Every structure is written in C-alpha cells, then in structure tokens.
Amino acid sequence: MAEGGIELQHFEHLAEYSIAICKECRHGVLPSHIKSHLQRAHKVKQKQAEEIAERVGSWPELIEYASEMQVPSQVVAPISQLPVYSDGLLCQLDAASCSKVFRSKDVIKKHWREVHDWSVGSKGGHLSQAAQKEIQRRVDEACRRVHCQRLLIQGPGSQYFEVQLPDNDDNDDDLGVVPINGEAAWAHVGKAMAKAWERVEKQAISTIQAGERDKVNPWVERTQWLPYLVGMERADLMACIKEPAAEPDPRSDNEGEPVEAAIWAAMAGLMRLSQASVIKRVGVFVRLEAIRTEKHQTRYQPLQPYMDKEAIIKHTRPWQQVLMFFSPQYQFRRRQREAWEALVHEAERAAGGEAEERETEADKQMDEEADDNLETDEEMEVDGTDQATETAPNQSAASARPEKLSRIQKACLEFCIALLNHRITRQEYDSPLVCALAVLGVKEEGWKGPEQYPPILSAIIKTARFMVEHQGLELRYMNKWHKR
C-alpha cells in the first residue's frame, strides 16, 4: 500500500476488526460498498471512487460480508476511530449471558419482550403517577447506562457494544464521545434525526413487500422472486445462506453449526474433485456433450475448467449457499428427501468426529476392477475423441488413480443430482433449487442487479456440469462392476 495514497485521505485500516473506517463519517464500510459510499456521502466522482475502492480492497484480510463481522461481546477499550456514545443501555435481565446494548428505550423494551419474554407494564391506558414511577424503577433495574460504540451502521454487525469508561471525564472529547447534554448536543440532534428517519425508511424495506419495484433489475418480475419471498425478512434470508462456523465464537452470540459446516466443506471438496475429473478423465467430445443445452444443438466450444484452479473455490460458493438454504422441514420429493436425509446423516457423522468406515470387500473389489479397466477404456476414448491429447507424452489420465470421494462427498453429489433431476411440470417454484436460487438474489436493500446475479447463475450452471460429468463416471464404473 503506497504511503500517503489517495485512499488514506478517506479511509483508515482498523486491522483488529478487519474493516476499513471512513475518516469523515467515522464508521466501517465494507469493500463492496466503498464506491457507492464515496459517491453518495462524499460526492466523489465515479472514476476516483473506483480507484479508491480498488486500493482499499487490496488491504489484507478485510472482511467481505457484514455477517463475518466479529462484534465484541465483552467490555473493550474505546476504538479511537469511532464515536463513543454515553447513552447506551445494557440489558441486565440476564447479565450472565446477555450483553446486548441499545440506545433507545423503545428498542430495549422490544428486546425484553421478544428475547426475555418480559415486559415493564402489564396493561395500557392512563397510568397514575405512582404507576409511572414503578415502571421507571423496573426499567432502571433491567438496564444499565454504559458508553458504547459500533463498527457498522446498518445490517449484520451493526449492533452496539460496551466500551470502557475513560479514566478522566475530560478525555471524552479526545475519544470522540457524542454529547447528549448542553449546547453542543443540539448540533448532534439534527444528525440523529436524519439517521432516525433513515432507519425508519430502511426498516420499511427490510421486509419484502408485495408491489415492490426495482427498475435496475428487469428480470425480478420474470423470475417471480417477489411473490415467492413476500413477507420474509431480508436479514433472515441472507443469514440462512451464510457460511457456517463449526465452533461457537466467544466474541459473539453465534453458536457453532458443525453439521452445516461439514456440508459446506464437503461441497467444496466435491467440486474440486469434479473439476479434476473434467480435466483428467474425459475427452473433448464428452465435454462437448456436457456443454450442450438442446438435443439437436451443435456446440464448438467444449466444457472448460476454470483457468485458475483456485477459482473453483470462489465459484463453489453459490452451491454451498444453496445447500445452507434447506432445512429438515423443507418439503422435498421422495428421492430428494432420501438424498437429503443421507447427506445430513453423513454430515452428523463427520461433525461427530467419526472416521470414514473401512471399505467392504465388495467396495475394494469394485475399485480394483475399475482401476484395471480404467487405463484401457480411457486410452480408447482418447484415441477416438481427442487426438490432441495423444501427442502429449505421459498425459494419460489413467497414469494415476483418481482420488475417491468420501462418504459425505458422495452423499452431497447424490443430493445435488437429485435437485438437478427435478422435472418442472406446473410451477417453477415447485423446484427446491429454483427456490434456493431466488434467495441468492436478495440483498439488504432490494435485489441483486444485472451485474451481480448473472455470474452467480453462471457459476451454478458450469459447476453443475462438472458434477454431472463426475456422477457419470461414478455410475459407469459402478454399473460395469455389477455386470460382472
């Protein structure tokens, strides 16, 4: 990073929390939001905003998604780059396990009702002065005033957290404490009102509502995302497809999800092996068939692996998110249900630390016979389909035994194939895969536009072809063994 670069005029790297802080606005900004933030909040021209966004995006270990933000769950020292608020309200109803901080009495009362099933008052109507004092006493006992900060101003990771009190109250100005009393507070009132109105507007669009329009996304009406997802919370939908953590994070309230994490990892391994099969185990004519979308279509460009082998990790993510969308309550068809239950079973075994079971004698015999025939069969395919590979010495895929799928990877492959085999007869949203793809189009505000969603579809389709190729190879050698 060049010293004194243009990006340093606007942003500072808060390495401890892996976030870029806007110096003027004094809050964190995700790399994907930097360009729009500069143009909207600071009126920076597009070309310059793109340059700054690119430079900031090159900073090491910046988080890409708000859901990855690790908000402190314990009291920490104030972060000098962020404003400190002295009107925080720390929940005290369950002090041992709840460390939620709010800056509004209405919001913390809602938290008490929804999380702790507790309310300060039991009835409405006009309250006597004594009743009002009693309610105030109960409120004071259920929360404690603290100093607080937050890293992001919206979405996941935007919750407040408690910070330590300064040793000397005179240092509040140095720490950026926002005044809540006196003449200086009036300057803050205008900003607070503007932010409050912005929160109201954002809350109004946080729930997907019937009749929404998105002019930058012309296929929303065609895909019927809106009728399918109406009434659902955007934050909940985005949370259900995020990458799971195998272990609980002590710095947040997020619990570990070892079963989901095992499925996520299995999908990554499956896709890596599926692409390897396309590279090493099939010829050009097979790949031409794989790329064809119509029975009588003629294609001249075969299915190609990603040029950078590491790119498969990035392009596997949409399929991983699709698998995270489903739950045991989802209404699958019979074969999809059986494949899903088998996948969950294997994931539970993997999450429980059970090692792969030893191969049965039949498994070993099948592998040995398949390996005996692998070299002859695949060399014949090369001779008849891809003369280019014949000229390259020692390039036969049969020279090395292909890596086997683990039990959970096989179960993952079977479930994905079951999703792809769903024949739509009436409504597109009878297909579980189509339903999951709709959720991948959701953003915190609105829908993913024409520059964001097509790459997701492209990755889903291309990697699906890799899996179909690999499933064909798996079935081929299995059927050959059973015929003997």
TrEMBL record:
Keywords: Metal-binding, Zinc, Zinc-finger. Residues 368-384 have a biased composition (Acidic residues). GO terms for molecular function: zinc ion binding. InterPro entries: OrsD, Znf_C2H2_type. Residues 386-398 have a biased composition (Polar residues). The lineage of its organism: Eukaryota, Fungi, Dikarya, Ascomycota, Pezizomycotina. The keyword Nucleus does not apply. The keyword Zinc-finger applies. This is C2H2-type domain-containing protein. Coiled coil: none annotated. Residues 347-402 are annotated as: Disordered. Residues 89-116 form the C2H2-type domain.
